[in-house]
Amino acid sequence: MTTNIEYGHLLVFGSVMVAAWSLVIYLWPRLLLSVYKRALLAKGFGGGPIPVNTLQTESQALFADPLHPPASASSLATTGVNRDTLLTAGWLDLRKGPLVLHVPDMAGRYYSVQFTDPSKNTVFAYVGKRTTGTQAGDYLITGPGWNEAVPDGVKRITSPNNGVLLIARVLVESDADLSTAYALSQQIQLLKVESIAQR
Amino acid sequence: MSRTTTYLAILVGIVCAWFIINSILINSILFPHPRNLRSDVVQGFLIGGGLAFVTAQIYARIKATKVNGWITMFGLGDPGNGMLLRAAHAQLFPGPVNVPQEAMYWWTNTDGAGHALSGAHDYVMHFPAGGLPPNEAFWSITMGDASNHFVANPIDRYSLSDRSGLARDPDGSVDIRIQNAAPAGRESNWLPAPTGKFILWLRVYIPGEAILRGDYTVPPVVEVK
Predict the structure, then answer these.
(1) Confidence class for position B1, pLDDT limits 50, 70, 90
(2) What is the Cα–Cα distance from B133 to B217, expressed in whole angstroms?
(3) Are A81 and B142 within 8 A, CB to CB?
(4) Half-sphere exposure of A75 toward its Cβ, with a 13 Å CA cutoff?
């Protein structure tokens, strides 16, 4: 009896199937985060696109009247209901060297700055009330393989990737507190290393 | 868990299974047809990708915790997570999420009895004395319509939280009223609902140990008959 089963074809089909399965599982978080990257860099919260290595805080108007987001805002930035924290976000590219994150004195207020590795959608570091306290501080964010001296008075955060998604959340206590929370959010800043060294 | 994605996952699963049965069992083993390399690669890629989606959806449902209708996942955002768990997390919480120590999120689109939440009904959420979510930052319950957008209402209230000045009953418990029309005499604890279907989000930032250990139970949303 001759068998006509095409093992070669089955092998090709099966191998490609397993490879595609692994690839899609592995890349899913990265694809998800690339959508956020595009939304931030192209549109932002309505204050215009957010250039790489800069931060943008959502406007007080958007927080106060979330029913009417600005037409220019990314729908990703305005879908999902959050009435607790003012968001500040940006995309970091550490290929040209590290950056300094400056946070102001939050005087006990809840806030967090979340550093997400966009290749895995996992968080590799936090600055904020839970982890570093609410006093003012400067943090040097370095990419992989960076090996130079860390300036005095600056703590180092090592990123596993040159790309980083940064999201800061500052608690809004009440409507009357919105402008204070906004002013504090705007003092969360990315600085060049030179500007720290010159102090 | 959204019904649309459930149906989509089932549909993709059936299509993939049918293709596997059709192209392997029937066309290759039982009644061999000539095949070419290109269709092997294309079919393998599409079916592998489809099965990846189905796997991630199933694994997400296995790893999700559902109590009283409220769905959450532990271990979001942890750098030690493997690739299958990371993909599963991205199914139910598709965004740049916090780790549990920083914040826990629960959501529900059903009441405690499993019926879809709708503004056609009135609901109450009862926190017994000392039963509000333990935390070192804040907690909140936020209303979203069926597409996860804020809901317009006459008092411009979109959430209730530890900052809302919630009224307590004499025994120290807190009842949150979730309904479309204002509850007479209980406006302070009213979370306005739309007329149609809605979802609820519970956020607890810097959650207490009881939450992180899995010992804290979120009360059900109960329909008031």
Answers:
(1) low
(2) 9
(3) yes
(4) 3
- Is the ipTM reported for this complex over the cut 0.85? yes
> Which range (A77-91, B33-47, B105-119, B199-213) has the least confidence?
B33-47
Chain A partners within 8 Å of B82 (Cβ): none
Of B70 and A47, the structure prediction assigns the larger pLDDT to B70
The Cα–Cα gap between A10 and A16 comes to 10
Pairs across A and B, CB distance < 8 A = 166
pLDDT at residue A199 tops 70: no
B199 has pLDDT over 60: yes
Averaged pLDDT for residues B170-198: 96
**Which domains are seen in chain A, by residue range?**
40-197 (2.60.40)
**B16 is written with which tokens?**
């993939």
Residue corresponding to tokens 């607890």: B204
Mean pLDDT, chain A, rounded, equals 91
Instruction: Answer yes or no: are the C-beta atoms of A169 and A111 closer than 8 Å.
Output: yes
In this structure, how many other beta carbons lie within 10 angstroms of the beta carbon of residue A109?
A: 17
Residue matched to tokens 């102090």:
A199
A135: Cα within 13 Å, side-chain hemisphere? 2
Residues B169 and B17: their CA atoms lie apart, in Å, by: 56
Residue B206 has φ and ψ, to the nearest 5°, of 45, 65
Question: Average pLDDT of A66-72?
Answer: 85
What is residue B176's three-state secondary structure? strand
* 3-class state of residue A81 by DSSP: coil
Mutate to test the interface with A, among B19, B24, B31 (most CBs of A within 10 A): B24
Dihedral sign, Cα of residue A53, residue A139, residue A183, residue A130? positive
Q: Do B77 and A6 touch (CB under 8 A)?
A: no
Quick one: tokens of A135?
């006093």
